[in-house]
Amino acid sequence: MIGVSPQLAIRLTLLGVVAVILQVSAVTQIQIVGVNADIVPLTVASVGLLCGSLNGAALGFFAGLFVDMALFQTLGVNSLLLLTVGYLAGRLREMRDPQGAAIPMAVGGAATAIGVGGYALLQFLLGVDAPVSFLLLGQVLLTVVVNVIVAVPVHAFVRRWLLPALPDDPRRRRRRAYTTGGLSPLSRA
């Protein structure tokens, strides 16, 4: 990870490993509306939103490589897609610095669409024998909907996990209300 403290690098590494292991071992066993949630692109997108494009892309690459190795898939497909997800989420943070409450859901939906839809497209382009029909499109759309719902708790967990190691960003500071109970210094007589 580029230009990060050792504490943040360790936290990002542990987060990526735990997300992939949790996805492969537990989340794939739980079906909601006939599809499985996919927490790896949500985790990568959250890291991109919190840490920037380079850290999001680095985590995306290594998490994707770990997913490909864990599932014995074509190496590099998930790496490419999750690298893209992390980079784009990080660029959104760097260019716009979104602060809305719905941002994790919107970015999570886009990350899932890139991850799941891109995976299906790349497998088709690589010549893997898989049925391509409207059923696949329905599965992708249902996965996006499920991940939009799951995006808020995943983002909250990632933020809570990384918050002690994140550098202080002056753009992220918000004005705080006076908590002393007294009047504002601007309202002196």
3D architecture notes:
There is one protein chain. This protein has 189 residues and is mostly helical. It has one domain: Orthogonal Bundle (Arp2/3 complex 21 kDa subunit ARPC3). Helix content is 65%, strand content 0%. It contains 6 helices and no strands. The longest helix is centred in the last third of the chain and has 29 residues. The radius of gyration is 19 Å and the shape is globular. The mean pLDDT is 87. Keywords: Cell membrane, Cell shape, Membrane, Transmembrane, Transmembrane helix.
Estimate the strand proportion. Answer: under 5%
General form: globular
CATH topology: Arp2/3 complex 21 kDa subunit ARPC3
Helix content: 55-70%
Quickly give the CATH architecture.
Orthogonal Bundle
Count the helices. How many? 6
CATH class designation? Mainly Alpha
How confident is the prediction overall: mean pLDDT?
Answer: 87
Helix and strand succession? Answer: HHHHHH
- Give the total of domains: 1
Report the major sheet.
none
| Poorly predicted spans | none
GO biological process, one term: regulation of cell shape
Pfam family, one: MreD
Transmembrane segments: 12-33, 39-63, 70-89, 101-122, 134-158
Membrane topology: Multi-pass membrane protein
Gist of the model:
The chain is an all-alpha fold. It is 65% helix and 0% strand.
Features:
globular, Arp2/3 complex 21 kDa subunit ARPC3, mainly alpha, 189 residues
What order do the helices and strands come in, and which of them pair?
Layout: H1 6-25, H2 39-51, H3 53-70, H4 77-96, H5 103-125, H6 134-162
